[in-house]
From TrEMBL:
Record-given protein name: DUF1272 domain-containing protein
Taxonomy, superkingdom: Bacteria
InterPro entries: DUF1272
Organism from which the protein derives: Stakelama tenebrarum
Pfam family, one: DUF1272
Length: 74
């Protein structure tokens, strides 16, 4: 199951699990759309492709909440 990280690792923008606009690589490194575009959809950590992260909503989100550990180094 995806960890659903709560923020962009590059700029710190909040990325709620129930909203579109998050991009992830196969290691779940997570970035906002603006940062993903700026990095040409390539993960700076592993070099992998960044793709749209699916959303998690409703009862599924309640039963399986998003992660709370923030990854932005700022």
């Amino acid at each position: 199951m995806l960890e659903m990280r709560p923020d962009c690792e590059r700029c710190g923008t909040d990325l709620p699990a129930n909203a579109h606009g998050a991009f992830i690589c196969s290691f779940e490194c997570t970035f906002c759309a603006e940062c993903a575009d700026a990095m040409d959809e390539r993960c700076p950590n592993c070099g992998g492709e960044l793709t749209d992260r699916p959303t998690r909503t409703g009862e599924r989100l309640k039963a399986n909440p998003a992660g709370t550990k923030r990854y932005f180094p700022g």
